[in-house]
Amino acid sequence: MTQAQTRGATPLTGTVWLRDQVCEGIRDQIITGRLKPGDRLVERDVAEEFGVSRIPVREAIRILMSEGFLQALSPRRIVVKELSRQDVVNLFDMREALEVLAARRAAENADAAQLRTMKRLLETARKATLAGRPERISHANTAFHHHIVETAGNELLAATLEPLEGRLHWLFHQIDDAGPVYEEHRRLYETIAAADAEAAAACALTHVRHYREVALRLLFDEADSMRSADSAPARP
Predict the structure, then answer these.
(1) C-alpha 22: how far from its chain's center?
(2) How distant, in Å, are the alpha carbons of 19, 80, 132, 156 from that of 211?
(3) What are the tens digits of pLDDT across the range 144-159?
(4) pTM score over 0.85
(5) What are the residue ranges of helices labelled H in the chain?
(6) 1/6 Cα distance (integer angstroms)
(7) Cβ–Cβ contacts within 10 Å for residue 8, how many?
């Protein structure tokens, strides 16, 4: 009996469920570093690992390619994508536009229950930071950002950010800058809790720009060229 049958699902629903399980499994392996940039995925091997046919594996690979985790070097050679500098810059451009808006709206809309959840996630990140647990820090920080987006109450904003969350989690996992990040999150929480929309937006912008600089320095051994571009004289 197939897994779809044991779950009481139709074949279509079962295939979708299996696809999602494979997709989540591969994505998690990439984010945690078990699968590294350049590692090849072979449909047959992945199917055997997850105990499924090649159909859900093929569909999962297609989704992960659209999310930017995998790339096809040829029709039969699929590998884990290496984040390029431009990939990182593009991600932070999107974060700067969308997360600043999310912080502003969260400060305007947050109720007591949402603030308690935000504070709990912040405390989880604090404890993980003190304990030096990178995986827990990454999960807590990702959950904190996700909750701010939920609190903003804008479904279109959430839907726009959703495809980026996996790649952002992947990026967060590769950057060890937990102390400053926690302090920035704490200040962001305080401005949201104070219902100060403009201060929350300013904190979010500072946070995103700081993280951009750290990411480019740690991943590519360079400072953000935007700073030098901003200080350069305008061309005639």
Answers:
(1) 18
(2) 33, 23, 19, 25
(3) 999 999 999 999 999 9
(4) no
(5) 3-6, 11-32, 43-50, 54-66, 85-109, 112-131, 134-152, 155-173, 178-193, 197-220, 225-231
(6) 7
(7) 8
The dihedral over CA atoms of 109, 184, 95, 165, expressed in degrees to the nearest 10, equals: -80
pLDDT exceeds 80 at position 142: yes
Residue 3 has pLDDT above 50, yes or no: no
Give dist(CA 163, CA 111) in Å, integer. Answer: 26
User: Which tokens go with 158?
Assistant: 């959430």
Give the length of the chain: 236
Query: Which pLDDT does position 119 carry in this prediction?
Result: 96
Q: Exposed/middle/buried for 191, CB within 10 Å: 0-12, 13-18, 19+?
A: buried
Count the alpha carbons within 13 Å of 200 in the hemisphere toward its beta carbon. Answer: 25
Residue 155, beta-bridge partner list:
none
Identify the DSSP state of 221. Answer: S
Residues 49 and 12: their CA atoms lie apart, in Å, by: 22
pLDDT tens-digit profile of 176-226?
A: 666 788 899 999 999 999 999 999 999 999 999 998 998 898 888 865 444
Three-state SS at 79: strand
Q: 75 CB contacts (<8 Å, ≥6 apart)?
A: none
Q: pLDDT band at residue 1, thresholds of 50, 70 and 90? A: very low
